[in-house]
Amino acid sequence: MITFLAHGYTYRQAAGAMGIEMSTLASYLSTTARLLGSPRRLPALVHACYCHPSFPAPQPFEDTAPTLSAQERLVLGAHIRGVTIGQLSHTTRTPRYVLTSANLGLLARLGGRTPAHGVRLAWRYGLLTEAGMARRHSSRPALLASPQQVGATQ
Questions:
Q1: Contact 51, 38 (CB under 8 A)
Q2: Is 0.85 surpassed by the pTM of this model?
Q3: Would you say 113 and 51 are in contact if contact means Cβ atoms under 8 Å apart?
Q4: What are phi and psi of 71, to 5 degrees?
Q5: Structural domain boundaries, residue 51
Q6: Domain count, the chain
Q7: Contacts by 81-84 with C-beta closer than 8 Å and gap 24+?
Q8: Is the pLDDT of residue 152 over 90?
């Protein structure tokens, strides 16, 4: 399920591809976020999964990573922490329209369709792997492999 969403699928598309109801997908995402100790916002959940030692990190691109502006890096950092553009605007006292524009620029520069897809692409470009590698080698328990197993733990 995370893989579908990280590839830019909408919730509806991912649920359809998995043959499940959207409410079931939402339940799986909530459970996964809780197990990983991650915010439930999807870009943060994608990042948390890639940081987890039992979830495969995406294959790196051979291309050089695009150069991000300071505001694009700020927005990417907010995405992986589960912070919304509105919250980031309030915290940094940066106008929301400036951060929204930076978010659109970030997605365009990375080639992402959604913030979660942008996080995946940032991993592939190597923009997030250094921060994530310490957690990938942690001693946390393995993430359950399938949504059926996750559902069985409730």
A1: no
A2: no
A3: no
A4: -70, -35
A5: 2-152
A6: 1
A7: 81/39, 81/44, 82/38, 82/39, 82/40, 82/41, 82/43, 82/44, 82/45, 83/41, 84/41
A8: no
